[in-house]
Amino acid sequence: MTNFTLEEKDSFTVLGIGTELTSDYTDYAGINKEKADFWSAVKQDGRLDKLKAVATNDYVFVVNEAVNNKMMHYAGVMTEASLPEASRVIQFPQGEYLVVSGEAETSEALSNMLTGMAFGQVLPEAKDFAYVGGPNASVEMGQRNGLVFGEMWIPVVRK
Fold first, then answer.
1. Using CA atoms, how far apart are residues 151 and 111, in angstroms rounded to an integer?
2. Rounded to an integer, what distance in angstroms lies between the CA atom of residue 70 and that of residue 24?
3. Strand, coil or helix: what is 97?
4. Mean of the pLDDT values across residues 34-39?
5. To the nearest whole percent, how much of the chain has pLDDT over 90?
6. Pairing relationship of beta strands 70-78 and 95-104 according to DSSP bridges
7. What is the pLDDT, as a whole number, of residue 92?
8. What is the mean pLDDT of residues 63-77?
9. Taking residues 72-82, what's their average pLDDT?
10. CA nearest neighbour of 92 among 157, 154, 150
11. 20 to 30 Å CA-CA from 42: which of 34, 48, 76, 116?
């Protein structure tokens, strides 16, 4: 089984630039293409750099959240600032979080790997806790030995 921890986290806010994912939630290839296209656009047009410039730390958040029955995907950072380009202030609740750690060759590979491990392995096998919705995030924390490392943070409740 994948290595994971359960951690208590204070509530926090992520400022995000987002896009609606329109592929069916079971169409992983379609969803991954939409996400890749979005990340390519925010990197090329400078919006990601603008977000990073107002961040309180070096973390880059890849946030997934259901908003008004829409599947939303965001690039975000922790900050108290606001930006005209930002489309949402995402509130993460105080409480217990499933934390899955990993490293990969690229940011995209890291996010996909952590999401797969968390939702494909840990949560389906969990007996004592469950994800009941709310925003979840893959958090890119830095680089070491040529790899990108980070964590997936998913709010959970005890069963």
1. 9
2. 11
3. strand
4. 95
5. 82
6. unpaired
7. 96
8. 93
9. 94
10. 154
11. 116
Locate 9 and state its tokens: 């986290």
Beta-carbon neighbour count of residue 98 at 10 Å?
Answer: 23
**Residue linked to tokens 């410039």:** 53
Q: Which residues of 57-68 are buried (b: 16+ CB within 10 A; e: fewer)?
A: eebbbbbbbeee
* Pairwise CA distance, residues 113 & 21, whole Å: 19
Give the residue-averaged pLDDT of 26-51. 93
DSSP state letters, 28-93: HHHHHHHHHHHHHHHHHTSHHHHHHHT-SSS-EEEEEEEETTEEEEEEEEE-S---TT--EEEEEP
- The two structure tokens encoding residue 128: 């004592």
How far apart, in whole angstroms, are the C-alpha atoms of residue 27 and residue 151?
24
Q: Is this structure's pTM higher than 0.90?
A: yes
